[in-house]
Amino acid sequence: MHTKHSATCHETTAPFLSGNIEDRAIRPATPDDCPGLVRLFRRTYGDTSHPCLDDGFIRAGIEDGSHRWFVLDTPEGIGACACLARHAWNRSREACFGVVLPELRHLGIVTRLARHCLDCMPQDPAELGYFSMRHPVALHAMRKLIDSVLVGHDGGPNTVDGVREYHMTAVHPPAAGRFIHVTPAQRAMLHWDFLRDAVYAPLGLAIRPGPYPEDCLVGTEHEQETDGFRYTFDARIGALTLGGYTGAAPKENGLADDLERFLATHGKADYVCARILADKHQLTRRMLAMGFAITAYLPAWYWREGARFDALMLVRRRFDDSPQANGFEEEIATMDQAFAQLAARLV
Ligand SMILES: CC(C)(COP(=O)(O)OP(=O)(O)OC[C@H]1O[C@@H](n2cnc3c(N)ncnc32)[C@H](O)[C@@H]1OP(=O)(O)O)[C@@H](O)C(=O)NCCC(=O)NCCS
């Protein structure tokens, strides 16, 4: 992944120097920084469902090397941070967790931190790069470093100060010809303007239809497993995220039957989210009939045996409050319209 303005990592060991913000030290985080990072997130987000209020979550990522954090020190402790996470299951890298204390904002700090994250991790040419954001400022800052194409949202399950809000997903164009990418071959996809013009074209992806793997539900959430479904349930916000299917049903309709039974037993959640491969139209149709809506088109999301395949994000919401869009109102409306068009073609 090539950033627009590459930085070196020379600043990473400099200690904090008083005075101009340009002199302040940016350095990689260590496990000792976990309490300071939790304090930073608590101060920024208050009562939130953000995973970074959990010391153990941050520590695990630093210790196993999957999360590379950079922090900015101030005399009072960590004043800002950003992270690059590597997700082995789908060979992706995610720029995430950019936070700057209010008194340090508008000084270019998150931009510098994000640049360090992007530049200081060895690249894997087969990787897909992406990030999720709650605010247009984060998209603006990232676009200064690397091209980023919005591809959808999460339906807004998470909370900041007790209020639900959307997170958008943006994907970075892959380096030319770096990975094999397969387009779902159905007409509904090949003739969908949004996919061609708003996703593939700006990402530089060609339309190359081909067969998809049999896998249907894809993901990595597997804290619990019942009745053939692996999932994570976040009781604080009533959010169930499906991470995979281990049941015996061989076909999409069989899986849909199992999913209907599973949701009848376990689906009291306010929010259910699933990522399914974009060629699985029978299953998509059945899920739309169960009350799901498409909220994102995730190009090249799934990696399997040397090739990348697209996925759809489907979400079922049962909560009454409307999530805040924080300035993304127009983008969400436009994308929801495009996803509704696709849904109408599929049913
Ligand atoms: C979003 C956040 C990380 C930005 O950090 P920052 O260090 O102030 O950002 P930068 O100074 O690097 O600014 C990046 C760009 O955004 C612009 N910007 C920053 N804050 C802005 C604001 N409130 N409104 C409009 N533009 C803003 C800057 O002008 C700059 O663009 P420019 O170089 O073209 O002028 C910070 O506001 C924050 O921590 N917010 C709360 C947590 C959060 O929402 N994090 C993002 C999670 S996705």
From TrEMBL:
Residues 24-171 form the N-acetyltransferase domain. One of its GO terms (molecular function) is acyltransferase activity, transferring groups other than amino-acyl groups. InterPro entries: Acyl_CoA_acyltransferase, GNAT_dom. It comes from the Bacteria. This is N-acetyltransferase domain-containing protein. It comes from Paludibacterium paludis.
